[in-house]
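Entry 14. Structure prediction run on the chain below.
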Amino acid sequence: MLNEYQRRSLSITLRIIEERLADIELILNKCDDIHILYERKCDIPGEVKEEVLRKTFFAKDRIRIIAENFNLKKSPSKQAGKHSVNCRIVGKFSRMKRQRN
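Output returned:
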C-alpha cells in the first residue's frame, strides 16, 4: 500500500484532475449561453461534445475506483470548495477592474 505522503500526493493529483473534468463538463453542459449584451454559441459538434462527456465520465469513474482502492477521502468542502469558488470570483473581479483602468 501507500505511505501517508504517497496517499496525499495521489489524492491531490486526482482531485486536480477531477476538478478539471468538472470544469469541462460545466462548459459543455452550458455551451449555449445567452445574456443581456452577449451570447455564446456552442461551436462544438454534438458528436464531439457527447464523446468528450463520455470520456470525462469514464475518467471520473476511474478516479472513483482508485479512490476506493486506496481509501482516499474527500477534502472538506469548506476548505476546497469555498476556497476554489472564492478564488475564482475574486479573480474574475480583479480582471474586470484591470480592464476598466
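DSSP finds three helices and two strands in the chain.
Filed with the rest of this week's runs.
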